[in-house]
Write a structure and sequence with these properties.
Layout lengths: L3 H4 L8 H28 L2 H27 L4 H24 L10 H6 L5 H27 L4 H21 L9 H20 L6
Length: about 210
Amino acid sequence: MTSAAELRGHYDVTDVPSIVRGSVLLGLLESVIVLVFSVVSRYLDGPIETILLALILLAGLAAVTLLPGIWTQARTIEGIAGAAGIGLGAAFLFLLVDVVLLQNIGTYTNRWWQIGGSTWWYHPVWWMVGTFLPWQGAWILANQAERTGRVSAVAAFGTAVVFALVAAVAAVLVGFPGAGWNLPTFGVAFLPGLALATGLSVLGTRRS
């Protein structure tokens, strides 16, 4: 029986082995990024810590947002949904690694407890965000391909970052609860920033 992925040729690669493989790769990558982030957060301080954490955060956001859509070669809702599926599978794999390993090796600081009261509070947040980011990222890539015939991960991520910075500054200026001139504010602002970038990417596309 011919699969839908085979019928689509070289795009919308959503066969089960590809989704599982992508989920495992992305989940392991997320685990490494969180481990490095926690080590830097524990053992460094001052401007060096902030700079390194910012670079790690940007790298992590870019990977989770764009890699699934690149792997599925998203062009239609099939590939976009496949990218979201990779994100969801990766989130569950990361949470397994987190519970079994990362929470037990002593790199997490008490900041986790200060934020949520435990190291479990972020688990439902992680799988929701871990699915939302690839979904939106694949949507942007698909819209780029529809509009110009090619995709640009740099342009997609750069647009999302610009919108995130605008959202973060706006949140601070209007006194949004918890907002400040810091990385957590940018991290949260990346979510509406990415949504705005997705909305912008729709302009100029023709969807039947």
